[in-house]
């Protein structure tokens, strides 16, 4: 049985779907503060899934999961706050939840003898890029508490491996995009900040705001590496296999090695929607680096992971999911 924390959230739920489709037994632990029960209900139709509502900040909540499920082989850990701007305004919330919460999880794993974890890390651990594309040797100098909270967990995991033999794979995501190809689940943030859903949700009353057109890039807008969520979910399955085969603690960038500008993404969304999308050009958003692109060679070589879905596929699936989501909220 695989324990998935944060399995009711965006990347978590797509990974749970992939695990269930591989015939794995899954237990999701989620506080439902940001995740949604409707997502769990959709996933329950696909296989052997147990759900436990709980919070990692409460040690007994997570100990309880291990106490009543003695067959947990490994953990995939998504549960975290992930909004960069919020983390700058409220670092306490980020360090308490993302670091202390993870410590509770790791300590419970040690107590119950579970020694394999796949951790959802981020490109935000690198900070302002020194060179591009970014490989895993790039300096890790986060410029916000969100990135720092994830880096701290990476460091703790190194020490827990050396001292206790707890093996981890840290997956550093670039920009995640898209939804399940059958629109059963998708990205669902009550307050959306991400580019693609914001473009797709735009109306004449709530126009899409393009943050900054004066960057030193191909067309003046920021360039990001959009990695499809199903490809990303698949990388978690590969990481689990890697650990199961005795793989050492490791870390991988997950991206496509190619970037698209905000203007390119906007044009692709208009094409998918087949309509003009209302747009306002605004000032830069604080803290956005001009270009973030992943060198994904290591994940390709070591995990034998090959992302196959392109940006158009991600936008198409995201759009189909948006239509479903509109009927749910
Ligand atoms: N953007 C807009 N308008 C919007 C939303 C975004 O113009 O309404 C622009 C942003 O300014 C940025 C690009 O679109 O240039 C991508 O923005 P996102 O918010 O979609 O993604 P980020 O690159 O800011 O953040 C992502 C993850 C974070 C992670 C970060 C790593 O969502 O969790 O990458 O740097 F920390």
Task: Classify the beta-strand content into a percent band.
Answer: 15-25%
The low-confidence runs, each spanning 5 or more residues with pLDDT under 50, are none
Following the backbone from N to C, one meets helices and strands in this order, namely EHEHEHEHHEHEEHEEEHEEHEEHH
Ligand inventory: uridine-5'-diphosphate-4-deoxy-4-fluoro-alpha-D-galactose
Q: Care to count the β-strands? A: 14
Q: Report on the biggest sheet.
A: 7 strands, parallel
Oligomeric state of the chains in view: single chain
Termini distance? 32 Å
Q: Order the strands across the largest sheet as they lie in space.
A: 3-2-1-4-5-6-11
Residue share in helix: 40-55%
Helix segment tally: 11
Account of the 3D structure:
This protein is of the alpha/beta class and 329 residues long. Helix 6 links the parallel strand 5 and strand 6. The strands form four sheets. A seven-stranded parallel beta sheet has the order 3-2-1-4-5-6-11, with helices on both faces. The two termini are 32 Å apart. The longest helix is centred in the first third of the chain and has 21 residues. The chain is built from eleven helices and 14 strands. Helix 1 crosses helix 8, helix 3 runs parallel beside helix 5 and helix 9 packs across helix 11. The structure holds uridine-5'-diphosphate-4-deoxy-4-fluoro-alpha-D-galactose. Uridine-5'-diphosphate-4-deoxy-4-fluoro-alpha-D-galactose binds next to helix 7 and strand 8.
């Amino acid at each position: 049985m695989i324990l998935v924390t944060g399995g009711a959230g965006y990347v978590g739920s797509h990974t749970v779907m992939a695990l269930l489709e591989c015939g794995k037994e899954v237990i999701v632990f989620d506080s439902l503060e940001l995740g949604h029960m409707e997502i769990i209900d959709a996933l329950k139709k696909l296989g052997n899934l147990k759900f436990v509502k709980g919070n990692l900040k409460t040690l007994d909540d997570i100990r309880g999961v291990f106490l009543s499920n003695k067959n947990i082989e490994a953990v995939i850990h998504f549960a975290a706050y992930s909004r960069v701007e919020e983390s700058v305004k409220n670092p306490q919330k980020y360090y308490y939840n993302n670091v202390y919460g993870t410590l509770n999880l790791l300590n419970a794993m040690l107590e119950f003898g579970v020694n394999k974890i796949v951790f959802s890390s981020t490109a935000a651990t690198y900070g302002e890029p020194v060179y591009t594309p970014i490989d895993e040797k790039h300096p890790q100098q986060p410029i916000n508490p969100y990135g720092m909270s994830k880096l701290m967990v990476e460091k703790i995991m190194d020490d827990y491996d050396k001292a206790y033999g707890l093996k981890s794979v840290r997956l550093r995501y670039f920009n995640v995009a898209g939804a399940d190809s059958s629109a059963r689940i998708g990205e669902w943030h009550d307050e959306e900040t991400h580019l693609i859903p914001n473009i797709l949700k735009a109306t004449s009353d709530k126009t899409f705001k393009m943050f900054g057109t004066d960057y030193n890039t191909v067309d003046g807008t920021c360039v990001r590496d959009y990695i499809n969520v199903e490809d990303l979910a698949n990388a978690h399955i590969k990481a689990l296999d890697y650990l199961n085969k005795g793989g050492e603690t490791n870390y991988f960038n997950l991206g496509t090695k190619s970037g698209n500008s905000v203007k390119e993404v906007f044009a692709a969304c208009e094409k998918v929607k087949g309509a003009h999308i209302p747009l306002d050009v605004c000032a830069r958003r604080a803290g956005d680096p001009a270009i973030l692109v992943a060198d994904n060679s290591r994940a390709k070589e070591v995990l034998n992971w090959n992302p196959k879905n392109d940006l158009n596929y991600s936008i198409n699936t995201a759009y189909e999911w948006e239509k479903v989501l509109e009927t749910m909220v």
